[in-house]
Specification:
Blueprint: H1 3-27, H2 32-56, H3 61-87, H4 93-121
Helix pairs in contact: 1-2, 1-4, 2-3, 3-4
Length: 125
């Protein structure tokens, strides 16, 4: 798979991830904590796809690095909120484990891409 194909796959994958986050939000209990944590998860989870799309359209290597840093931050925050939903017993772990796994995989991919971009451009970590 070349770089263009890989980028296309990740664009589709992050969009599907955002759709899964939306469905998660829609399924959450209408309790105060469910909705507050849900909105946080919705914001950062959908932001992963939007910011990765923006990174793909970056005008410079430093802009790409900056956008990828946002993607990593948002993916990590999404993972935090998913963990909180599980640990607070708002959503059963069994229901969220596939989404949690996908979040971890995306976080790993984007962290590596950001690190590689930073090394090539000698951007501080």
């Amino acid at each position: 798979m070349d770089k263009i194909e890989f980028t296309e796959v990740l664009l589709k994958r992050t969009k599907q991830f955002a759709l899964r986050i939306i469905k998660l939000f829609q399924s959450l209990p209408k309790s105060g904590e469910g909705q507050i944590i849900g909105k946080q998860t919705l914001r950062c989870g959908t932001s992963v796809a939007a910011n990765y799309r923006a990174a793909c359209r970056a005008r410079s290597k430093s802009e790409f690095y900056s956008k990828m840093s946002i993607v990593v931050e948002e993916a990590d925050e999404t993972l935090f909120w998913i963990e909180l939903l599980i640990e607070a017993k708002i959503v059963p772990e069994k229901k969220l484990s596939p989404l949690q796994k996908e979040t971890i995989e995306l976080l790993s991919i984007f962290s590596k891409a950001r690190k590689t971009a930073g090394l090539k451009n000698k951007v501080p970590k």
